[in-house]
Amino acid sequence: MSPNLTLGDTLTPQTLGEGTTWVTIVFLLLMVGIASAFFVFKKFRLSMLWLFKDKGSIVAPIILSLVILIQVILVLHTHPSIGFDPGAIHEGLLPDHSNELKAYFSMYTNNLALLLLQHQIAVFANSTSWLLFDIVNVIFLDVAVLLNILTIALIDRQKVIATIYMHAIWILVFPMILVPYSDVVVMPLVSGLILTYVIAQKSNFKLVWRLFATLGNGFFLTAIYFIKPSAIVPIIAIVAVEFLYLFRNSVGIDVQWQKLKSIMIALLLCVGVVTSYAYVNHQIESQQVIEIAPHRTVPAIHFINMGVSGNGGYNAKDALAMGRQPSQKAMVDYSKKHLIARLKKRGFFGYIKFLISKQNRNSSDGTFAWLIEGNFMTAKPTGAGLTRLFEDFVYPEGKYLSDFRYIAQVVWILLLSMIALGWRSKNKLTQILRLSIVGLFMYLLIFEGGRSRYLIQGLPVFWLMAALVLPDTMAMLRSKLKWLQKDVPTQTMKN
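Structure (tokenized):
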């Protein structure tokens, strides 16, 4: 259970003794008041439906535009330097590189692609400021939102308005735009991966467009692999579900043609992956931005080993030990030894208990581990006016930091609740998204986790899932709240 729902003084290192204020009280009163008025007062209910549904094609884009404007104002007023991995990447953009920085990129070569991307942006803009990359982060996030909306539009246009509202609410409480790292950068790539898959599967699209989308799907997959490899989980879900659907029926007039089209799409996907992989890999191997020693790359088993240590998150002792090992083989041997020892120490039932606890830490925080990382942010609220207001919500020691945590947690719970209550939806795409979520949770249970920041890469999947199952969720709620809706007109009940 997340501590973010605690009212009053939370007494945690992250909030530094700051508790929720009148902001949270007003937020709760508004939620309760609006919900009560909606169910009790017919005129209010009809007015809300008229404004946000009947006029939704106008109101929804306006609200989303206002949220994007707030994002821009936020980064213009607050663009602090960030520590941990984003700080290392930002340091790599500067001309002089320390031996420690060279060692970092030698060990964590997974961040080289992001370094090269930010380097190209810095060269183009002639700047390495945090403000620049925060603005770029806003663009990445909002492109992911727009791609998600387009995906829903291709599937069911009647769900677009609700999708816009939901995305606007969720990104409004998402200050991770201030952290230019792979978590946010990969989000539009995941959204693009799902969008191109949907286009490729649309039977009413011309075959040439479907094949072109498949090729693009391969490009997105390669980009995801180099930016954040763990975010390829959706493609695994897609392959698994498509395989099951392909061989579910072994007879029928169109079976052979369907298999042939699937083979064509699969081959074109491979072409897209191979060509884009070869290009990106060549760019990384021939890069001159920073000097590295490729043979010092940390093996994957290191992250599995850390995944069973402590609370399942980052382990400084293991990380330092990797730097002391003379070779990759020594890194593997060290990780294997400690992994086996830790598993034996926990035992079967102890390990199961550990996984349950780790899953809670992986998924319970609606702020996505804001300020939790080591050396996350050292800035303190010192501004005035609007700047100080934003700082008080997102900075360490901010007056309204706990209010932000509380509100973000409520939004996260609503999102998860919508997905959970929509379990009756069983179409192919929802099954793929559901399997993607399960796959991401399984990955984080095995590898380094212990905090919900790693869920950011999968947020496009969560958002799409919530949008697609919304009718089923609302149907479930209506069936349970019939006693409150006896006076609702028939046309309203159908919506």
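The CA atoms of residues 309 and 342 lie 7 Å apart. Confidence is low (pLDDT under 50) at residues 13-17, 490-495.
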